[in-house]
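User: Modeling request: complex.
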Amino acid sequence: MTAPGRFNERLSLVDAWEWLDACPDVMGCEPSPLQQSFGRVLSAQLTFPADRPDRDLAIGDGYAVQAESTFGASSYNPLFLTIVPKGVALTAGCASICHAGETLPVGADAVLPLEAGEAAGAVLEVCDAVARGAGVGHKGQAARRDDVAVPAGCRLGVAQIALAASLGVTHLTVRRRPDVALVLAGPKPPAIEALGIALSALTARDGGSARFVRHHGDTARTLSCVGLTDLVLLVGRSGWGEDDDAEQAVAAAGGRIDHHGLAVTQGGSSGFGWLGGAPLLLMPGEPLAALVTYELLAGRLLRRLAGRPAVWPSPVRRFTLSRKIASPVGVSEFVPVICHGSSAEPLPLTPADGLTGYARADGFLVVPAGLEGYAPGALVDVIATFNDTISQDSA
Amino acid sequence: MTAPGRFNERLSLVDAWEWLDACPDVMGCEPSPLQQSFGRVLSAQLTFPADRPDRDLAIGDGYAVQAESTFGASSYNPLFLTIVPKGVALTAGCASICHAGETLPVGADAVLPLEAGEAAGAVLEVCDAVARGAGVGHKGQAARRDDVAVPAGCRLGVAQIALAASLGVTHLTVRRRPDVALVLAGPKPPAIEALGIALSALTARDGGSARFVRHHGDTARTLSCVGLTDLVLLVGRSGWGEDDDAEQAVAAAGGRIDHHGLAVTQGGSSGFGWLGGAPLLLMPGEPLAALVTYELLAGRLLRRLAGRPAVWPSPVRRFTLSRKIASPVGVSEFVPVICHGSSAEPLPLTPADGLTGYARADGFLVVPAGLEGYAPGALVDVIATFNDTISQDSA
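Assistant: Request completed. Predicted assembly structure:
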């Protein structure tokens, strides 16, 4: 058992990120029905099965014509065309109504916009000329057969899913969703419920699928029930007190701990190890510290395993600090802030404040270990995570 | 039946927004289990049932002490305290281990940080003094009983849900999720599948719940099966061709159309009306125009009904246009763009390009009706919607 870590023995946040970033990516891929693929990451690129459009078509509502039949027409010199039924091959002097997206009739080479003609019975008064090809979308104009429609690695949004559906695709090959085994060894109700709900929602936000492994009092036995997984989060009992058996339990279950202790104000008892080939994180059981640890550590690894950028999933924006932040040198500190206009106000964040500050915050900043904090008026980068509602991918 | 709208007879986008913004908000509220409340909008504020914290507690790991017992201690002049078991009332000269979040033992008034003491058996060597109250979180410090924990109108994220769970709350009172009746009267497969998937995903993104009302060929009869709803989207058959029976069908089903025709390049056949007391939008069946219409019209109304800001749900950022955009005066135009650095490149967007440009875009801009477009180098506001993956709230 590692001794209670002094600051200078604890892993720095930067080294912790290096450890996380070195965890191997062994995620494969799987087929996914189109409707359930929102937010997933495409593994195999999607190509166009045919030219797009696959024929010449009208790009707006109007009248299909032979352009030459309109040459010379103006509001001072209208020309008159004969309206023929849709689907009939067009000859000189004829026109037929044609809607956006419809195939041009045989013989037509332009579409006269609706507002350039005035129909009266079977006669169309044309008061403007159109050039050959005007108003026409040409075969292959948008894409050629075998062109890439959606590249591999793309995170699928509405537009990509809709495009795939319009190509007749029903399934896509996507990166497997990382399985996250959540073992809640602490704290007591109702804090444990709060943690469970929050960690499973954050896991979903970052592209993973949380699976609770029920803790039966014996942490080692619980860990032996984890089964095949991509990431183990062992929450609680990570400290150095008499009940804190997390590190020993990992060893007893056949795993190992590489580092125990983190130079971060909240989450100092975090640990980094392995269980059954999957990375395992020891996380503190105190809800606030656990959520901070998730944001600083677990989320980063999980996003990468899910095929997303490892960096913060929310926009980072620069604000002016309204009040001083004091932070001990040698530890990184997670500071929630409330933003007003271009100014960010730091909030207290201690176990005494519980999740109160966390729930009020618009975002957070991280004071690097090398700084004593920030003076009022300092420009700081705020990660606007908290009040973003969660992006829960369809499971 | 309204005549095929000329540009000057069509509703402007600004007037359309005014119509949408005037639709009454008749949404009530409903109870929602906590786990299913992510992304929902809180109707009844949540208050703290008790002071928070509800007792004095340690805010970091260390030793509970009487501060006076440490006065004068330094690394040159260490003092020695007797370590007593946890839970025992503390007297002068004694200390007990105490973890973050734990209740202070009776008699203690400060927490000596772990690194300021060195335990050897039952003796604690203290090399720093602490002031009374140091390391202690006081009862009511974060919040007083009946203080607001989460205000009404807040969209619930992980932090708010976790706070509610930590207060022992299992259900919240949230705004009812708007029911959106989707009637797909056009287009043909596979375009209709693409539209269905995309419109239900966009509806979910904007806080609504899509319900497909199967179209049996007769639009009026289909509309009479819509039932109680908050918004009807009637997609397809909205134009002025021989198959375009949407407007008549609304009347036949007992509804009415206030306006038919919109001065927007894509979606000119949109219409605005009522069915069974709920607002109804006529939308074009061509997939691209339907999605543009959703983004410009339906999404705005739906977000407001869902209790969210009606404005674009994605960040708006300023970019420099890399190429000219030409747009007819009198109509608004929706232009998808690809962004590179600070520059935005407009993409073609016609039915011939189908969803190809839409799926490649990073966002879009809207050319106001009063402009002929933009010159290269113009600063434009880009709405970064498309490649945001969807935020699907748990249903």
